[in-house]
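Table 4 source record.
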Amino acid sequence: MIEAKAGLAWAAIVGLALTAGALVPIYGTAVLAALLGLGVVAFSYVRPQAAIVTWVVVTAMVPYWTNVYVSAMGFPPSAAFGLPVLLGAGAAFLMRPQKARLHWMDGALAAGALIIMFLWFSGELQGIYFLRDLLLLWALAYVLGRMMDSRVIATAFPIIMAVVAAWGLLEFAFGLHLFADWMPSTSHTWNRIQERAGVSRSEAAFGHAIAYGAALVLALPYAQRLPRYSLVTQLLLVAGIVVSLSRGPLLGLALTLVLCAWVLSTPQRRVRDTLLTAAGGLAVYFILTNLYSGEYSSEVSSSGDARLDQFFAVRDHLNWLSSAISFTGPEGSPIVAGIAVIDSTPLRLAVNFGIIAAFLALTPVIVAGVRSINRKAGVASVALAGQIPILVVTSFITQWQVLIFFFMGLVTSEVLNAREPDTIPTPSHQEKSDRAQDVPDRLRDIRRSEVVRMQRITEEPQTGRHRVVGPAPRHVQ
């Protein structure tokens, strides 16, 4: 039987190779992509955790606008590489002896996704990118986060983001922006470098300084838990956040440091964590004070005023279960109350998909915030709760949105695993009382048996050997 299966496997490989060879002259690129995809699927099945970590590396270090086009629809790197990873790792996950466990947050996000899909199929949402973002960016990242081993990501993620932070520091120091001319397009501006106060802001491969800084903030709680080089990694991340010159990430930095000291700090590290929090808070205050004063203060204040204007302009147009946007122009650009850009994730989701769908989509963020306040949060929950200031002032952009949903999956798994001890049956009060009453009786029986054994030993006839009083050695017994 084994030989027959091996023969069939070799026959399949030979057939696949012959088919690929015949198609290469006509469909060379497609064949190469298919073979690479199959290789990623196989690798993900054999090493699912390593494959998901590799996906995080691709997501963080390949520009978001490097799209792979299939039937005129662009697949960002996180989707193009993530689909085969999901197939392989998902198959390995389902083959485990342990059954997959679901949490009510899985149901909340699924319900939100169903609402969005209904709006798209009913025609309220126009454009395939709504469905693409939902399935290939958000849902895919969330499922990979649910399958991720928390111990693996706890070490891998801060190291990956420390490299990204160092990349941003080099950009800031030398003005070397690798992707400033990468795949320019009239439909996006992600390759353009932003400036603030006359200084180019660091972005690495994230296409936006806010997305870059926010992603680094996500890694701070994990960096605090590293067994080695924890302080160096934290300082590197903080420096990277600072050179983004973005208020949202700076506020997220301050909140994350406070939450780390409040939730994760141990008695041995409390002094160090408190000092780091104070230093980070002072740095944020100093930078924001300088940004809001001087000759370049108008840049910052104008963007803040624009966010308030957006809220007051669209709040009366929001619906509970339907979209508030209309589509205009030859490209069908979505607008609401004459506004095309909304710089707030909750507000953007509510405008696009309705208030209920927005609430369901952000459920893990809310849970992470509540658990952090109650000091019941784990590292993933603290990291996601620290993103709340950024989410309030920034809409989902580039690969930062992918990492947010990845962390939503991590938070759901974290909450689910934290409930495991509660599933172990605990004895009732009556059982505890019965056991307490049994203890003296058991001790009395043990003492009686020891007395009887000692009497038997001392009453044995003398045989010239020493009498054994007490427990006999192992070789005598």
